[in-house]
Amino acid sequence: MKWLIINPLIRSQKRVYDAFRAQGVPGEPFIPLVGQLWHMNEANKIGRGMDYIVDLVQKHGSYFLFGFGPLTRMILVEPELISDVLGRSNTANYEKPPDLINIVKPILGIHNLLVSEGDEHDRARKMLNPAFHFVNLRSMVPIMSNETVKAIDSLLSLALSTNEVNLEIQMNSLTLSIIASSAFGQGFETTPHAKESICTTFNKVKDVIEYRTLHMINQIKFLAELPFWGKKIVDDGAKKVNDFVDQAIADRRSGKSTSLCAGQDILDLLLNAVDDKGESFSDQQIRDEALTFVLAGHETTGNLMTWTLYLLMTHAEVLEACREEVDRILPNGTIPDFEHMADLQVIEAVLYESLRLYPPAAFIVRQCIKEHTIGGTNDKSSIFIPVGAMIVIHNYTLHRREDYWSCPLEFDYKRWMRDPVSGLKPKLTHPYAYLPFASGTRNCIGQNFAILEAKVMFAMLVQRCNFKLVPGQQIVPEMKGITMKTKYGLFAYVEKREI
Ligand code: HEM
């Protein structure tokens, strides 16, 4: 009892709580084991889960303490302080939180970009950074557009048979197809039933992981190891997905399968990546990294698409501006390619604004492993961060701060339009006021891929479909697993647009 609960979940959490309170950091009261979970669940039930934190910022200011179940967290929405947590000078003082590791470990292992630390992470990041430069992603644009054509066909036939369509499910399935086809190539498309079987298994495992995370099972190590609450589904599913990826790697190595595009896909890039000494990744590392891209890359981008379509359906003038641009740059149903991307400026601005109001990664968590001070050493506003402290950078609230954004709750894509002469994006009021892809050494390696993919999908959906929101729905954001989705789905009538 003492080692499982009292020490890790009560004493150590209270120690961190007291260390912050002694410095005058405001916060909600310390309640052992449950913290403010009850309040948060009540807010979630009525669709105010995200706004609950917005309200706490109103109450306490831009940093404060909050009990996420047994775990004490410091919520941070102050850009200057955030820059000290995410910035390069303090990288060595933080790690990813153990609960994130528990969440992803069953399917991705621990040797991957998302959760590895130190030299292992630095090496992999250096080896993979070049792969995600815009130019290297160029060859994958046809995979993105081909998958979107297929998804639009099935979306339209589904709409004919069922009348209303849940766009959230459709968008997540499209982005899963794109990232998996970009990661595994031919085998994914041509092996009989591989695509359906792997996607279904992957989604089933993710659903169980989501359930276990919502019920605090993944966050508490000894609970996560017990053979209950869907653990077998996760273990069996992970084995099936891993076996498939091992086969895809073996087939690519032996030349039995190739990428689905003219150039290299993600699997080729992983196979060809070398470190400073000219050494490659092992097969197990390639498998874990490929699956990490699939997990980190599909739901985030799927949610971006869902929220963007919601905003499009509720802002007629935005739809009009997008249509005008798409019909001019991609006339008569032209399929977008890499060369069109720079010209799709309204489409791009709409996506950035959507990421501001509805960031799929609604918060970023770091655990302090070496004590230090943020906010300047002598300053009255400085905060000493003790070892074990968990910092939550709450993007959803940060992106809605009145002092950093004019009319923060308005959907105004024009704030992101590039300068027509220089082509540069407008300057932010603070570099750490907008963090949909995080920042610093652990920022999102896939952000170029995500923006490219979202531009292709969004431009084609605007070009080829008419969307109308099914009236009477409540559309509210909620954290599910590690991303922010709609609480009840996003239902729309979809029709083919004549082009
Ligand atoms: C709209 C889409 C996306 C959003 C909003 C997003 C957001 C983020 C954020 C906020 C992080 C930092 C997480 C943290 O520090 O805890 C992250 C990391 C990461 N993302 Fe993304 N992501 C997106 C798409 C993608 C795609 C398409 C891929 C892969 C192709 C990807 C791969 C990764 C990986 C591997 C990491 C870990 C990087 C590291 O720690 O070195 N993401 N992402």
UniProtKB/TrEMBL annotation:
The organism's place on the tree of life at top rank: Eukaryota
Q: Extract the InterPro entries matched here.
A: Cyt_P450, Cyt_P450_E_grp-I, Cyt_P450_sf, Cytochrome_P450_Monoox
Tell me which cofactor or cofactors this protein depends on: heme
Coiled-coil ranges (or none): none
**Residues where heme binds:** 444
Which keywords appear in this protein's UniProt record, sorted alphabetically?
Answer: Heme, Iron, Metal-binding, Monooxygenase, Oxidoreductase
Q: Recall the GO molecular function terms of this protein's record.
A: heme binding; iron ion binding; monooxygenase activity; oxidoreductase activity, acting on paired donors, with incorporation or reduction of molecular oxygen
Which family is it part of?
Belongs to the cytochrome P450 family.
Q: What is this protein called?
A: Cytochrome P450
Q: Can you name the source organism?
A: Adineta steineri
